[in-house]
Amino acid sequence: MSTTSTPVAADALPPDSTDLAAIGRPPAYFLPLLAAGAVLLNWLVVGFLLTPDHLLLGAVLPAVAIMGIARFPGASLALLALLVPASYALGVGAGVGLLIAISVVLFGAAAYGSRATLWISGVGLVAAPIALFALVVLRTFGLESIDSFLRNFSLSQLPGALSRLLGGLSIVGLTLGALFILLPWLLGLAWRSVIRSRQEAALAQAERDEAERETAYAREVADLRAGQTQLARDVHDVVGHSLAVILAQAQSAQYLRDDELDKMRETMATVADSARRSLGDVRAVLTGTRDQASAASAGLETLISGVRAAGNEVVERVDGTPRPLSPELAEVAYRVLQEMLTNALKHGREGGPVWVRQIWPEQPGGRLTIEVHNLIDADREAQGAGIGLGSMRDRLASVGGSLRTGAEETADGPMFGAVAVLPLRATEVSGGMPVVPRVAG
């Protein structure tokens, strides 16, 4: 029920968020000013406080109850429960200061108090009129008259008794009671609901802010990991291809005769060029200065020429008309073909040919297919797994492409094939970018 709702606990909110306990509370200076105003108003109405009882019960204790209502509503309510009967018992009565304290404490108990404080103040609102009614009855009839009335009770005496009782009640007193007691408590109850709504809104906002921070952090971590993965792929592609070319060159140099110095120099020059280019690419990758299309700008001809220079036969076929590619597609096409040729050199039959085929679509928006096939030894496993193939699949998937690999038996022996498919969307074609070249066989 709304009448028993408890404000949200402050420890339910993250440490760096809005303090829930401060929501709906009066400023720090407000309650002392209100207490001072109650004392001043009581002095203006009642006059000088001549006795210690008037000073303590009519000014000091009501001011203390008022100042403690925001932080200690239960204690203020308990003080008020002792203060009211003590004032009547000592003949001080309900001065203006005490009436203001009653209103403020009941408002604070309903607005800021715990559930127990709220219930106690509500019960007190019911019990106080009953006690007041009993006092009026005692004052009107006296204890002996009441005892005599109950002993000799008859219905004919009831109208007269009610008439005397109502005559003893003051309309002004009832109005003041409703004004200073019931109305403040109801207003406090309404303000409690407002505080509850504001606290829930602040808590929800804090949770949204925390969720946004966690999402941003997770995105940063994901971006970091994606960057690390991309860096690993680029280094693998650059180093793997260069080492494969260098290895092929070194193996071919073993079979050169002693009088073939020119071929030996050519082979060593190719090795040095491959190593130099690989070192430059790795440095650019690690320093982050390499443009996305810088590798593709070298052209696929450089890749195939390096494989040829290593002593491998390359048979290339181009179907359709090559066209310019966007930077993203040019980068993917270059890296994928680079990895395909690397695998062919690493896992293919030594001295065997490498078949490279490009299939360009006749209409814009089709698919570019790049195929690389190479013979493998019968006792060698087909390269169906590894970082390189995984890297190719991820690169192709990033642009909506796909990769198929597999081995088949041919008349010349087992042959491994890799087929990459790249979608050519019209919005990704840029006339200023390098085109996948046709290399003369």
TrEMBL record:
UniProt-listed Enzyme Commission number(s): 2.7.13.3
Enzyme type, top EC level: transferase
Claim: Ligase is one of the keywords in the record: no
Gene3D superfamilies registered for this protein in UniProt: 1.20.5.1930, Histidine kinase-like ATPase, C-terminal domain (3.30.565.10)
InterPro entries in the cross-refs: HATPase_C_sf, Sensor_HK_TwoCompSys, Sig_transdc_His_kin_sub3_dim/P
Keywords for the protein's UniProt record, in alphabetical order: ATP-binding, Kinase, Membrane, Nucleotide-binding, Phosphoprotein, Transferase, Transmembrane, Transmembrane helix, Two-component regulatory system
Catalysis: reaction(s): ATP + protein L-histidine = ADP + protein N-phospho-L-histidine
Occurrences of domain Signal transduction histidine kinase subgroup 3 dimerisation and phosphoacceptor (ranges): 230-292
Stretches that traverse the bilayer: 29-50, 57-82, 88-111, 118-141, 161-188
Protein's UniProt keywords contain GTP-binding: no
Classification via PANTHER family: NITRATE/NITRITE SENSOR PROTEIN NARX-RELATED, NITRATE_NITRITE SENSOR PROTEIN NARQ
Protein's recorded name: histidine kinase
Naturally occurring in which organism (per UniProt): Nostocoides veronense
